Amino acid sequence: MSANxxxxxxxxxxxxxxxALRGDATIAELAARFNVTQNQIYAWKRALVEAAPKVxxxxxxxxxxxxxxxxxxxxxxxxxxxxxxxxxxxKSAL
Length: 94
Fold this sequence. Notes:
Blueprint: H1 10-22, H2 27-34, H3 38-55, H4 59-93
């Protein structure tokens, strides 16, 4: 008994999750209307609620991510330079 898994588009998932968040209909009614399981609706609703703060990040939030990435690159460069310096110091001592 093999069942084919259906793959839903992200827009469809968002539509269903938003309908669940609105609360105009019960989850059972939405499951029947959109032909998906209730558990799937709960999962999409939870994913939407968890991802919502990312949508509303202010400019500083994105700048912090860029700053952290730049800082990591600088630490990496400092590490390489320290290894190179130590190598050259050992070679010059011989």
